[in-house]
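We modelled the chain as a single entity of 251 amino acids. Its sequence is:
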Amino acid sequence: MRDRATRKLLLSIHDVTPRFDATVERLHDRLCRLTGTNRMAMLVVPDHWGEAPLANDPGFGAKLRAWADQGVEMFLHGWFHRDDSSHAGAGASFKARHMTAGEGEFLGLSREEAQRRLSDGRKLVEDVIGRPIAGFVAPAWLYGEGAKAALRDEGFAMAEDHFRVWRPRDGAVLARGPVISWASRSRNRRLSSLGFAALARTALKPLPVVRIALHPGDANYQALLDSIDRTVKSFARSHLPARYGDLACAA
């Protein structure tokens, strides 16, 4: 029990938007049932693909505020989530094409545009939930140099990518290790993510901090939901469900 008390399990639901209202609620309830707690994060998209503005849906906003009042951490998760940039360089182009389905919004933004979306997004989400947000996570966990500089400029408390959680103002790393997530876009991606989750349940057990991220698309496939259940329950036995803010307090 002592080991579990010193190890943290960080759970998050991505793509929290009015577009996926019912699915987000189901995933929230599922994590509560699996862990017996509402210690989780929600990653909020202000206007998903320019078609689901949070500002125009007070009912969903009230839901977010209620969850925040209950202790759910709220992160800003891009603005549109869609990548509308032109990418310079083979590396960025490869990431944009192959690592995400056109959703790496902050990979190719200039510093100025990234800063504008960060500032506007933070103000909108904080107005909705009535409290400061916990930090920022880029869509698809992809950051360009402009986005990284803008995060420092805007003073976000924390950010995360596939392999770490860090403090933008000074670059201090708060946690290391690959995030466990599932991919639903194709059969091969589903099979690959199922295999990684099965491996992670053993290979990542020694880590002091384990991160598990759910997406609305996961809820469309029973095999993914079964894997999520096994993975969350496995780590909840060895790691204590915690909040991202606990990392900042310990730094």
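As a brief sanity check on the tokenised model: The two ends are 23 Å apart (CA to CA). Confidence is low (pLDDT under 50) at residues 89-99.
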